[in-house]
Known about the structure:
Number of helices: 2
CATH topology: Immunoglobulin-like
Structural class: alpha+beta
CATH superfamily: Cupredoxins -  blue copper proteins
Number of domains: 1
CATH class: Mainly Beta
Bound molecules: copper (II) ion
Strand content: 25-35%
Amino acid sequence: MVLKKVITLVTIFACSTTTLVLASPGHSDDTSSESKPTFRAGQPGESQSVDRVIQVEASDLMRFTSENWTVTPGDTIQFVVSNTGQILHEFVIDTVKGNASHRKTMRETMAGDSMMVHDDPNSVSVLPGESDELIWTFSESGSFEAACNIPGHYQAGMRAQVSVFNGTVAHNP
Ligand SMILES: [Cu+2]
């Protein structure tokens, strides 16, 4: 009698396992595919397709030098960001609105007494005395912004406009 009971249980288990296996292929509602981040200012670029290198100095004067850049849609820019100051700076490419949202997140995180730096593909955080690079492809026309969103820095002027547009404009460096 005991033996028969065991066999019955095994059979039930086997059946339910089969059901689960058969059911799983139809259930593709498990995340993936669309979770890739998208950016309004373009997308991360590849080093082999860099069209232009822009040297950027981030200093404790709360400035990026130089201040504004003009880019043609489709161009891949290698920003080489050198921090010549004594404190941490970051360089984030986004829309004005996007950067405002980064700052909000940063303020909230820092209120919790933990130092937070961005680790997104559209940003680099550069330690004092060091330099880092950000390769970015600007895919669409528009007005974008490079910003340091560390509290107080943007407000003090640590931002630069990136104008992306088609057409030739007399441009004196
Ligand atoms: Cu800064």
